[in-house]
Amino acid sequence: xxxxxxxxxxxxxxxxxxxxxxxxxxxxxxxxxxxxxxxxxxxxxxxxxxxxxxxxxxxxxxxxxxxxxxxxxxxxxxxxxxx
Amino acid sequence: xxxxxxxxxxxxxxxxxxxxxxxxxxxxxxxxxxxxxxxxxxxxxxxxxxxxxxxxxxxxxxxxxxxxxxxxxxxxxxxxxxx
Amino acid sequence: xxxxxxxxxxxxxxxxxxxxxxxxxxxxxxxxxxxxxxxxxxxxxxxxxxxxxxxxxxxxxxxxxxxxxxxxxxxxxxxxxxxxxxxxxxxxxxxxxxxxxxxxxxxxxxxxxxxxxxxxxxxxxxxxxxxxxxx
Amino acid sequence: xxxxxxxxxxxxxxxxxxxxxxxxxxxxxxxxxxxxxxxxxxxxxxxxxxxxxxxxxxxxxxxxxxxxxxxxxxxxxxxxxxxxxxxxxxxxxxxxxxxxxxxxxxxxxxxxxxxxxxxxxxxxxxxxxxxxxxx
Lengths: 83, 83, 135, 135
Hints:
The complex is a heterotetramer, with 2 copies of chain A and 2 copies of chain C.
Chain A: E1 2-9, H1 11-17, E2 21-27, H2 32-42, E3 54-57, E4 60-61, E5 73-77
Chain C: E1 2-6, H1 12-19, E2 26-33, E3 37-38, E4 41-50, H2 52-70, E5 74-80, E6 82-85, E7 89-97, H3 100-117, E8 120-126, E9 131-133
Parallel strand pairs in C: 1-5
Antiparallel strand pairs in C: 2-7, 3-4, 4-6, 4-8, 5-7, 8-9
């Protein structure tokens, strides 16, 4: 069985990714760090020239690594600038 | 020649003085401290039970003593409580 | 740069509009409102009295200092006198500035100073009609 | 206790009305407005994008913390998305409290935290039409 992870991009990262979202299929037992590695290969442009990039899993900022579950939503975005 | 000083009362001090204002005639050369002494005799009630009483000469808070001029306006009031 | 001591109700919408400008990135507005409780007293309204000439001068001095200290763009200050009913605004301070730090600091500076310096006094009128100066 | 991320213009009068109560003695309102200049860029409008589900959750968490930290009575937070023109409000935070200290502290706490945590991003659209993300 594979995990389906929805990856969503926002702000300037969305522009650099060239898409709003994509579905990644990862082997069961994959971790956040594995997802990041896949993203670095598939969408290296989102790291280019950026000091910081932020990840949120199911609408929460991520601290540390963790195992992913099927249908998890991973958001990838630059420094926030609302207000 | 006498100095005419208008004394105005505000807030609870006005209630204790029993009047909004009065005109005091003081000898030329009289100082703020002289005016206060006259007031203490004529309107002792405005000091009764009050921790602090404030004086303003011509719309400015007073610091220190000073000679009075004819037609000066002296305001006497309790701690401010606006807002 | 409007300062008003007035018997009429405060129109906050109009006050805020008066300080807005496309040069500002921030507007901070303080409204002081008549609370139901003053300590244990249940209040029906407040009555404000001012030494008008001095109060206007005092507010102007405070506001000018806020401009020079915090570099705000504009301000409006209004304070009511006479009866002010439960829930109504007794005072409003609205400030515009390029950035929010200055706007917050200046707005707070102005109301803090008004409360300690500006010659205005209030009394509670409680629900039984009893009047008590708050000083 | 209203939190809204919306395309519609912010109605500050309505927002302030929503937090008013006779138990409050103070209302503090912050409005973030679109400034003419962003550094050297002359801006014609801003465009805001949000990660809506997370942004609402983020604002709710911040506001709840403000309630427990400062004991405020009520709050309303609105943030626009899409195009926001020069001079218009992009965000408003209005807070009511018994006393002004809490109202100021809580209002500032909320907007400061929104600006560093809440997933919303903006780009400048300058007077020539050039778009630049501000991050």
